[in-house]
Amino acid sequence: MEYATIGYIMVVRMRHTKSHTKNRRSHHALESTSFAKCENCKSLKRRHTVCSSCGFYRGMKVLDLVKKIEKKQKKEKAAQAKS
Predict the structure, then answer these.
(1) What is the pLDDT of residues 29-77, one digit of tens each?
(2) Does 40 reside within a domain?
(3) What single string gives the DSSP state of each residue in 58-72?
(4) How many domains does one find in the chain?
(5) Going along the chain, which residue ranges are E strands?
C-alpha cells in the first residue's frame, strides 16, 4: 500500500522554540483593574459598575443600600435569636 496513491501527504511538524512561544504569550499578562471616582460620593469604585458605598450609577440611584443593610441586620438578628 503506497501512501502517494491513496492521497496521503506527510506533514512536517516543527517544534516551536521557547522564544517563539514566549513571544506569542506576551499578550496573556493580567492587567490591573482601573478605578474611577464616584460622581456622587467621590469614593473609588470599579469602572462601569454601581458604587458600593452610595448605590449610584451615572448620576442615578440604582441600589437602595439602606434597605439592603436593614435586611442584613434583620437576618443576623433572627439567626442570633434562633441559636
Answers:
(1) 998 999 999 999 999 999 999 998 899 999 999 988 888 889 999 999 9
(2) yes
(3) TTEE---HHHHHHHH
(4) 1
(5) 35-37, 44-46, 56-57, 60-61
Question: Does residue 72 lie within any of the structural domains?
Answer: yes
Q: Which amino acid is at 72?
A: K
Report residue 82's pLDDT band, with 50, 70 and 90 as the boundaries: confident
Range of the domain at 72: 34-77
Phi, psi of 45 (to 5 degrees): -145, 160
Give the torsion through C-alpha atoms of 60, 63, 67, 69, to 10 deg: -120
Set of cell numbers at residue 11: 506533514
Residue 11 lies in a domain: no
Considering the domain boundaries, does residue 57 fall inside one?
yes
Radius of gyration of the chain (CA): 29
